[in-house]
């Protein structure tokens, strides 16, 4: 299965992002702590290479802590990087101070030239459904940016003032035109950053079952109804997806399986390894 997805609104999102770039002092790039490699958009990196950047691994509450530490050690060599959870708020308090210290030199330069201080403007970027809007809401303590448990919720750019010194730009999620590594596409679909409508859910679920069997075998035990490999029928049976004739609705089973996997019900999981 190869997943290729660059619909019209992604092209538009890229255009909007480029238009906003000149108003922006810094970038807060969100990665998914479960996918610290596959969730970082190489196209974004190229577009934003000249801007000071904070790398934040979100959804750290869903990721394998030992791996998050290993990844941050590696990613932290390129610049500031730390884990957060936009929904619980854990780690989020570090963002504004880090942003301010990232910009201090530049602001001092401007002050020395007599330029009046204005708020730092930072753009929040990342792939769809990674928690950009949730993070902004956590920082403002309100629900000013629209969020939702599916990709493509934010459509336009929106500036939101965090405090008198910092303004953040919420942006639509961006995916890159082609996945060099087919596994990356599957992982992104598994965590919900690619619309379920464009993937074969049953095929993807079978792939995820195999992946979990190899890396987190105990995660699947909840579905076990007999010996051998766990099947979609087992999941259907465990979750009551019975249809007429004593058969199971395997599509429904796959959907429930993803819902549970994405909510962390199967445990904390990191899918990118090195
Ligand atoms: N468990 C967990 N869920 C999170 C976290 N951050 C965001 N979410 C959930 O992830 C989903 C997507 O969040 P959004 O904030 O809408 O994501 P987004 O990056 O703005 O998505 P787009 O606007 O579609 O690009 C929502 O269901 C959030 O509740 C987190 O740190 N942990
Ligand atoms: Mg959003």
Question: SSE layout and pairings?
Answer:
Blueprint: H1 8-20, E1 26-32, H2 42-47, E2 53-58, H3 65-75, E3 81-83, H4 95-112, E4 120-125, H5 132-140, E5 158-163, E6 166-170, H6 182-191, H7 201-215, H8 232-238, E7 242-243, E8 247-248, H9 250-263
Parallel strand pairs: 1-2, 1-4, 2-3, 4-6
Antiparallel strand pairs: 5-6, 7-8
The structure holds guanosine-5'-triphosphate (GTP) and magnesium ion.
Overview of the molecule:
By secondary structure, the chain is α/β, with parallel strands linked by helices. It folds into two domains: 8-170, 3-Layer(aba) Sandwich (Rossmann fold), CATH 3.40.50; 200-263, Conserved Hypothetical Protein Ylqf, Chain: A, domain 2. It is built from nine helices and eight strands. It has a six-stranded mixed sheet with strand order 3-2-1-4-6-5, with helices on both faces. Helix 6 packs across helix 7 (201-215), helix 7 packs across helix 9 (250-263) and helix 8 crosses helix 9. The mean pLDDT is 92. Bound molecules: guanosine-5'-triphosphate and magnesium ion (MG). Guanosine-5'-triphosphate binds next to helix 5.
- Radius of gyration, in Å, reads 20 Å
Structural class, from secondary structure content? alpha/beta
What's the SSE pattern?
Answer: HEHEHEHEHEEHHHEEH
Which strand order spans the largest sheet, edge to edge or round the barrel?
A: 3-2-1-4-6-5
What is the CATH level 1 assignment of the largest domain?
Answer: Alpha Beta
Separate helix tally: 9
Total strands: the figure is 8
Mean pLDDT: 92
Give the cofactors and ligands.
Answer: guanosine-5'-triphosphate, magnesium ion
CATH superfamily of the largest domain, called what? P-loop containing nucleotide triphosphate hydrolases
User: What name does CATH use for the topology of the largest domain?
Assistant: Rossmann fold
When the domains are counted, the total is 2
* Residue share in β-strands: 5-15%
- What is the terminal separation in angstroms? 23 Å
């Amino acid at each position: 299965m190869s997943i290729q997805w660059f619909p019209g609104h992604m092209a538009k999102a890229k255009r909007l992002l480029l238009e906003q770039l000149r108003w922006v002092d810094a970038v807060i790039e969100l990665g998914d702590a479960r996918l610290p490699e596959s969730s970082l958009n190489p196209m974004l990196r190229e577009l934003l290479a000249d801007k000071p950047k904070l790398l934040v691994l979100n959804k750290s509450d869903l990721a394998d802590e030992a791996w998050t530490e290993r990844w941050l050690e590696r990613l932290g060599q390129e610049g500031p990087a730390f884990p957060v959870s936009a929904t619980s708020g854990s780690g989020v308090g570090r963002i504004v101070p880090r942003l301010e210290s990232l910009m201090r030199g530049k602001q001092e330069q401007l002050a020395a030239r007599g330029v009046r201080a204005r708020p730092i403007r930072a753009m929040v970027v990342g792939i769809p459904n990674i928690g950009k809007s949730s993070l902004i809401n956590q920082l403002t303590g309100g629900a000013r940016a629209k969020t939702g448990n599916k990709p493509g919720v934010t459509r336009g750019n929106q500036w939101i003032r965090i405090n008198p010194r910092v303004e953040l730009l919420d942006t639509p999620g961006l995916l890159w035109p082609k996945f060099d590594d087919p596994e990356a596409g599957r992982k992104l679909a598994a965590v919900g950053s690619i619309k379920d409508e464009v993937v074969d859910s049953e095929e993807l679920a079978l792939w995820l079952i195999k992946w979990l069997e190899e890396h987190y075998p105990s995660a699947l035990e909840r579905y076990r109804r007999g010996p051998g490999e766990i099947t979609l029928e087992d999941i259907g049976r465990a979750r009551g997806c019975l249809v007429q004739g004593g058969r199971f609705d395997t599509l429904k089973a796959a959907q429930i399986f993803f819902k549970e996997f994405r909510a962390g019900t199967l445990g904390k999981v990191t899918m990118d390894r090195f």
